[in-house]
Input
Amino acid sequence: MVDLRQRYLRLRDCIQPGVLVLFVGINPGLRSAETGHHFAGNSNRFWRLLHESKLVSEPLTYREDRRLPEWQLGLTNIISRCTVGIDVLDPVEYRQGVASLKRKIRRYQPHIVALLGVTIFRMLFSPKAHAKDPLGLGMTTIELAGSRIFLLPNPSGRNAHYSYRQMLSAFQVLHDLMEQSHKKPGSSTMKDSPRRR
Output
């Protein structure tokens, strides 16, 4: 059982200089508060997706979240406070979180900011009038603080909008962009790639 103090724990970011892709979630859940690690929910598929898409070369668990920089990957949240769900988050927390995220992007200059969920994308970029329009996964034409936005599905086990195959396909597209970037030193491949659905 999580006590009230754990609900206000803030997980440390997993980012280091040289990051190519910065993954961004909304905020950590209570299981993450219990363990002190990102994406620790029993049904969360983030770590499996990373490995099966070849974004990381070996299977990782939430306990190894600090190793992400070994693959030039980073991980943060818009809001660092752990909660049961996003409905308890305050609009002020969102505004402060977005300002903080922009500072992190300017500091670390990732090639791509990979938003983990349509909810985050809509929160940042979509007016309420278009909140129900379908969004394609993959590279977008939008930038945040100078980095391109890549839209991924939320890997939570509660996400019924995407099958595991669709999730994996989106993560594989991201892997392909990273591979292209590694093969062409000094190239802006990751910044200029067209959106893929």
User: Anything to note?
Assistant: The chain has a mean pLDDT of 83. Strands lie at 21-25, 73-77, 112-116, 138-144, 147-152. The longest helix spans residues 164-183.
